[in-house]
Amino acid sequence: MNKVLRKQMSSSQRALLELREKIFSGELAPGSDHLESELADQLNMSRTPVREAVLMLEGQGLLELRPRKGIRVVPLSPDDMQEIYDVLTELESLAAECAAKAMHKEEDLRRLSNAIDDMDVAIANNDLDAWADADDRFHTELVRLGGNSRVNSIVHMMSDQVRRARMTTLFMRPLPTKSNEDHRQVYDAIKNGDPQTARNTHRDHRLHAKTIIVELLKKHRLRFL
Amino acid sequence: MNKVLRKQMSSSQRALLELREKIFSGELAPGSDHLESELADQLNMSRTPVREAVLMLEGQGLLELRPRKGIRVVPLSPDDMQEIYDVLTELESLAAECAAKAMHKEEDLRRLSNAIDDMDVAIANNDLDAWADADDRFHTELVRLGGNSRVNSIVHMMSDQVRRARMTTLFMRPLPTKSNEDHRQVYDAIKNGDPQTARNTHRDHRLHAKTIIVELLKKHRLRFL
DNA sequence: GCATTTCATTGCGTATGCATTAAATGATGC
DNA sequence: GCATCATTTAATGCATACGCAATGAAATGC
User: Fold this and answer.
1) Total of domains in chain B
2) ipTM associated with this complex
3) Fewer C-beta neighbours within 10 Å, C or N terminus of chain B?
4) Please, which residues have CB within 8 angstroms of residue A160's CB and are 6 or more apart in sequence?
5) Is residue A1 part of a domain?
6) Is B224 part of a structural domain of the chain?
7) pLDDT by residue (tens digit) across B117-135?
8) How far is B182 from chain A (nearest CA, A)?
9) What CA–CA distance (Å, rounded) separates B67 from B51?
10) Do residue B90 and residue A86 have CB atoms under 8 angstroms apart?
11) Which of A61, A94, A158 sits opposite B90 (nearest CB)?
12) Could you list the mean pLDDT of each consecutive 10-residue stretch along chain A, which spans 225 residues?
């Protein structure tokens, strides 16, 4: 992340970004408790902007405020992941349907197809990080094309949570070589303006992904992430 | 709302509740701008707890922070309502499906059937407020039975938005006498453990409701609520 | 011992004041 | 008359201080 831009940022904004990073990097471990003053010291600022950032992160489901007990990084159980995937499944399928209805021109779908191509390359190179990155871009773009801003922000919130878990799960499973066929099917349906196929294909794809991940988490007893 | 309980509430909590009320009652009109200090004066407290409440309400999509321009009560266009209804449709249908899968005992479904009965009564009495109240309870309970906490909180957020609009639309349309048949069908499907019927019936019900409302808003040129 | 009360600690909630900065106003030059 | 820049104004962002209230420890009673 660009450190130069941060200089001219408000302290609350900086707190928000840096806390997010610390959460995603695992520097603030899931389930761990922290005091406002402790975080304020870490970030070299007073409690005020930290409180504001923490409040926002609570709203986003990343932190849990337990007065006098500590600010807790919310742990994710397999059940939580199931909940999250279920929401993602519904809302992304809706997005796929809407995107197909919208009859986008092929050039507007470029980022989508690029993401799919990148996943192919990543799989060929056995590059997990590149694959994860491209997969993110695919889903981000899909939801953007759906055109529902609320769906967009909810999906982004939930994807953040998934991202925390994926760090762990990504290295525990084989590369999803088959999943790109699904992606392409969804892409084609959107390009051809076929809402039902787009919706159903993506839905099945997501449902499948959900079972894989949740089983994996349960098998490895990853109760918290 | 219970004023006694509020006495022992933190100022931020009070700010949160009272601002919500002012927004829903229309005392703070959609599209209107307000200063932190202005709101603090209205609520008889300092800016600090107001800031915190405002931050949370921003996260819930009720307020929009525009530094040095004012805190704006977000206006809802017909397109916004469409977005919101689309999200509600997907997530409530999922909830209905899950509720049916869960095979709840009949006594656990009591609140659901009560809400349906109350709607019947309200319709017979031509009591709009009672109907709206029972309808709220039906949807709240449906989603609770679905058992997905994330779906729950998202649906509640979106329902808040719908409630703002309903104040207006409720008096512009005929009482939805037919809609209770749908509710009962959903109820039966859940009781009989038939996820697909529960899902599809509720989905159609919601899609239908969406068109009605959105058409109504568009026809009456209610660009903002 | 065990329960209960007291007390000290400390983390949080809130008020307050100052610093910052963006918007608005007026001044200056063209 | 218009554009640009300086100045003022005022709202926000942030640090700080203070008091309350909750927590845990120690002390007392049973």
Assistant:
1) 2
2) 0.92
3) N
4) A24, A60, A62
5) no
6) no
7) 999 999 999 998 899 999 9
8) 21
9) 12
10) no
11) A94
12) 65 96 93 96 97 97 95 94 97 98 95 96 92 94 98 97 84 80 96 97 94 87 68
